[in-house]
Amino acid sequence: MDQDYERRLLRQINHQNLPAEPRLAKCVSAACSPVSVKSGDRFIPTRAGSNWSINFHYANENCRSLNQSHKAKDASSDSSKDAVAYAALLRNELLGAGIESVPDPHADERRHAVLSQDSRSLFRYTVHSKRVPFDSDNEVSPYSLSPLSNKRQSQALRSPRKPARKISKIPFKVLDAPELQDDFYLNLVDWSAGNLLSVGLGACVYLWSACTSQVTRLCDLSVDGDSVTSVCWNERGGLVAVGTHKGYVQIWDAAGRKLTTLEGHSARVGALAWNGEQLSSGSRDRVILQRDIRTPPSAERRLQGHRQEVCGLKWSPDHQHLASGGNDNKLLVWNSSSLLPVQQYSDHLAAVKAIAWSPHQHGLLASGGGTADRCLRFWNTLTGQALQSTDTGSQVCNLAWSKHANELVSTHGYSQNQILVWKYPSLTQVAKLTGHSYRVLYLAVSPDGEAIVTGAGDETLRFWNVFSKTRCTKESKSVLNLFTRIR
């Protein structure tokens, strides 16, 4: 055996056999002595403070004491049960409580003891996993960020998506229109069912063919010292009415022949509207004349309700009601038999020129106000109630509904000079078209309902593709809908 190791072992045995006081004195003297004691490189840790048998003994004692306390409580449970039963008996006899069963007074304590005994562990580790029947289509991956199953995701990806609506921001054709007047109260552009565009330029009316792009002059009023203030085609597209500054209404056919001249107004005729063979004309003299071109002029009807110039006229699709707008900020609705308006709307704060009846909803009328109003308003003429309105931010000059979708287009003047396409009834803007440098005072829709033409004081006509030919799928299929069932 190594002598150094034997010497250290003997020193350790002698140290353990020493009494407590000399050992303490020796330790103090060793701590105070600067001489270091030579020791080996082996370290033996001491575990004197960790007596595991004592700890386990304390744990068993705690469990044993808990069980003994439960036994003591069970021993005294009989007396407590008797007390509870006696109290229930008194309540039934004196108060009529109607108690039928006596609860165990120590049930809650036992439940608490069981829970405390089961929850002796400080932490519990459990794994919560969503178990679904094994199915490759309905399986939900725990790493997926989508709440949809694989089957639902594949269905969503395979389902056809609605193509995004794209409206060109630039016109597909621009025509020069010299002497096109910049007058808010005139209506100088209209598109016929025969695909002929009529435009009033100064004292002349010109026809432009959308099929051949040929331009012909229909009439010239400079010989009589007159000028054109309004043009309007009939529904069939064979006749065009021309209103003049002197208050006359001339009827021409598409071949360039003048059929008749209607008198009766004492001022310029700025608004025209056909209803079959009947023609309504609105003038600055505040009168609306309704005449049948097949009868003598003496059979005319005079509608008086506006206090200033009549600048807007439109017949409803069912040919029963006429809407008129004037510079007196009034919107009036007339029927085919009465000489007085059946409805009057006074919410606009400026002249009402923009008027349009909806071809999709019976009795729905849209109107727009001038510079001081700038609002687009909708009316239910069946009940006479205002539906909704929106501020466009600019003077509303014209309105037109799409023939295929529940949308409408509006043209504006001061101060944006823009063209807006709206979706009804949400009134969200589908497109915003700009290009005119003056007020967009004139608007007409092509016979196929897909394109529009706009005219402004910048002496240009611009053609835009704004509407789609696909018919709205949400259109009502009711048998009471006059526009889909009866022709």
From TrEMBL:
One of its GO terms (biological process) is anaphase-promoting complex-dependent catabolic process. Keywords: Cell cycle, Cell division, Mitosis, Repeat, WD repeat. The keyword Cell cycle applies. GO terms for molecular function: anaphase-promoting complex binding; ubiquitin ligase activator activity. Residues 138-163 are annotated as: Disordered. This is Fizzy-related protein homolog. WD repeats lie at residues 221-253, 303-335, 433-466. GO terms for cellular component: anaphase-promoting complex. Pathway: Protein modification; protein ubiquitination. Belongs to the WD repeat CDC20/Fizzy family. It comes from the Eukaryota. Signal peptide: none annotated. CDD domains: WD40. The keyword 4Fe-4S does not apply. It comes from Tetraodon nigroviridis (Spotted green pufferfish). Residues 175-464 form the CDC20/Fizzy WD40 domain. Residues 139-157 have a biased composition (Polar residues).
